[in-house]
């Protein structure tokens, strides 16, 4: 009975990897709570088999790596709590590796992963087409210029790209029916393409083609790998006419701004009482190439946010929504009496009024400047409107609140180099994002930005010792041409331009894949390097 519940809990973890909700209970997500349940159920098995785990080279290397992360966290120059949290995540990864090692049915993990990735890819594409909701998984969408990036059921597009890329070899070299295999692979490729992640797009063909080329029976395996890459090319071609960014290099810069708008307001300053309902007449011109629809699934509306000028944060409110009176085509202008309600607390605010799409996807997220109105909200005053100079607010960035531009990788890597020279033993795991701004001469910066390089992240977090321990961990793997091993290789190649060891869905998957791959080798050391299935490497 205990083994059955352990298998169920492990399957539940794998199924929830692509569906971690942003809502938490006591600070932990659904995925983390399921992991805790798995550990509690599996603890008797871990204790019973601790000698076997302790004698395994891969587990030993992983334990050494995790121990160094804890030491680096203890000796971090600052932000110890954050560093200890990161070390805890590494420890959770070690437990996942051990649990996968102790599983006597790694193929069941593979089958569950295939099901989860297929559902996640299908949902991601449906959501991208407007048939899903982002709210269970994240608070905003992400864009390159004017083009939305696919995130699906993940918090960030790059996270989605990493998961889908790691899933491709697991799906492709499996025993599922050929039609289903090709269908899921096509959905995964489409999802990767729409994330606009160059790292994932390059990592998959590079790994699978190189692995096939340097293996025995080269021709047959090259053909199988080439088929997988060909599906990716087909997915790109199918999506080419549907996504302006993909066609940009062919059609030129005219497709760069499918969404654009210009706002005109009769006034940009207001004095008003708290919690007062009011409206402003907007003249909005469609300067893009996409028609704004007033009704239906892809409809566009007008709403607002309140920016507190003292705290420099948006208020958490439920805004009033104003529909467009009609469809608005290219170069057309529409008058929209836009309703709003003032904040309940007195103070100085900025009323940010703009168009939005599905689930309050503000046009300003794509670089369209909103209409700004400065507001003095005080009790007992009569309403008055006028004009004031708001040019300083518009210069703050594409949107109010975007106080710094996105940092290029070259600057992040330069900051990482300086950080390592100052702290050769590391600043503590996950502390790069809290420290890098100082090395770029900034007084404030986005603390959600990582170094965009797995190896620089480890180098700055735990120094040369930590990076060497990670290298030792990777060298402890018995590398073979099986799907989990290829998935780990894709993770490592993608890691040249991104970091996922602190991202729960991806580091869960990474450590599980290490255990899956090594478990197959340990259980059948005499078998050839072929993953169980009809079409193995």
Describe the structure.
The structure is a single chain. A hairpin with a 4-residue loop joins strand 6 and strand 7 (313-314). Strands 4, 6, 7, 8, 10, 11 and 12 form a seven-stranded mixed beta sheet that branches. Strands 3-5-9 form a three-stranded antiparallel beta sheet, with no helix packed on it. Strands 1-2 form a two-stranded antiparallel ribbon. Residues 252-256, 397-405 and 518-537 have low confidence and may be disordered. With 537 residues, the chain is α+β, with helices and mostly antiparallel strands. The longest helix is centred in the first third of the chain and has 23 residues, at 80-102. It starts with a helix and ends in a 14-residue tail after the last helix. It has 17 helices and twelve strands. Helix 5 runs parallel beside helix 17.
Termini gap:
35 Å
Order of helices and strands: HHHHHHEEHHHHHEEEEEEEEEEHHHHHH
Taking all residues together, what is the mean pLDDT?
88
Strand content: 5-15%
